[in-house]
């Protein structure tokens, strides 16, 4: 089969295609009422369907020819005039269909949608802000009390404060049972110890042993409970342990007695001054601290100087041998060199044990905050020259420096121990000085520390009362009772036209002022509240009823006037 000659095939033109399509009846402005007859083509010519970009209807298509509207041209002429053939079609002809009004309309719709979205977001933000503001206002209203609630709270705080002040002075339960027992035992300890020293010195070591068996378990329990149990490894407790061994286990050991005597009269006794031990009877802790430092010295003074030689030779042969040995004999341990040498051995044992078992093995707990004697001395003497020297050293050298200073301090305190051993009155005088120093520390605590502490608390309470009164002055009408009263009413809270505030009343100024100008009310001491008094606190102090009943106030006024007439 031979292939057709493509070059000889007729190529249809747009006119012929349009002519074939025009054979159908198409309404025009001129012949819209009369159909057009068209004869069929004489020869069948195959046509190629070429896609066009023309609009579907003439009315919706825009033409580049301004004379299109209302013309009598046919569709064939319109095709020829407006749309070139495909081989001459350009991009501009394609873009011509996207008209500007459609783009503007689309842009306008996008702007309208964005505007609506912004409007809705703004409304949502305003709604949430309003709701948050309303919640904040409601929360503030719930938290801030009203004027009546503030006044009730003020009355309650005033009553509690004045009641606390009254209990501080009048309530015997402020001192606990333990402090009462400690006070009794402290006073009786001084009395019994003095009686035994003066009348029965041979029983002093019994009294010392009984007390140490009583004090030490309590000290161990309380210090362990408070986290102070590392203090129980200090030298003073070690000396008391050696004292018990020398008295009850090894009474014939001359070397042990020499070490105990030097450490007791040296380091322990002077520690009362260094550690500020004080004789405070109501404090069990302070009484115990003073006991473990001074009682070994008092006991050794009795068994060395006050008991008879016969009883000393029988009960304490080591003391009798040392005391009656001639100078230069092998048993004469009461010289300075022998005392320092034999006391250094137990001191070195204690120091090394303390360093390895406490400082090294418990370093983490000490760094976490557990106090020791080294940390306490470092804080207490940080502003003293010796403390500045130790703290100025590197951290690795501070502990060795502290141990060296402590040993030097122990040696200095043990130098005069030979004098205390051979001379009775020198030993008694030294004990008297140390004991008086502890009494002075106790007096300082009671007057300067305890008294000033209470005075500061009272002053702080007065300032707080004045602050409360200033804050609630508007609620209370300028004074506690509120409003203006008669002259007899003003006499309770004012004197000579001057208002007496609660702060001045607490501090005593208001009470002193009423002692002279208002004899009908009695002295200011009559207004100190009793524990069973159920009146409001401000009325108990100032004599003015806080927010009371008018009828009750009138009755009280009549009673005051009646008493004034009498």
**Oligomeric state of the chains present here:** single chain
Distance between the termini: 158 Å
Tally of alpha and pi helices? 24
Give the mean pLDDT: 74
Question: Rounded to an integer, what's the Rg over CA atoms?
Answer: 56 Å
Q: Tell me the total number of β-strands.
A: 2
State the helicity in percent bands.
55-70%
Regions with pLDDT < 50 over 5+ consecutive residues?
1-48, 53-72, 478-566
| Helix/strand order | HHHHHHHHHHHHHHHHHHHHEEHHHH
Classification by helices and strands: mainly alpha
Q: Which sequence of strands runs across the widest sheet?
A: 1-2
> What's the main sheet like?
2 strands, antiparallel
What does this molecule look like?
With 566 residues, the protein is mainly alpha-helical. The chain is built from 24 helices and 2 strands. It has helices spanning 14-22, 75-82, 91-95, 100-143, 147-170, 177-199, 204-226, 235-249, 254-274, 284-306, 309-315, 317-324, 336-360, 363-368, 373-380, 385-391, 395-414, 417-422, 424-471, 487-493, 502-507, 509-517, 537-542, 550-565; strands at residues 494-495, 498-499. Helix 13 packs antiparallel against helix 17 (395-414). The N and C termini lie far apart (158 Å).
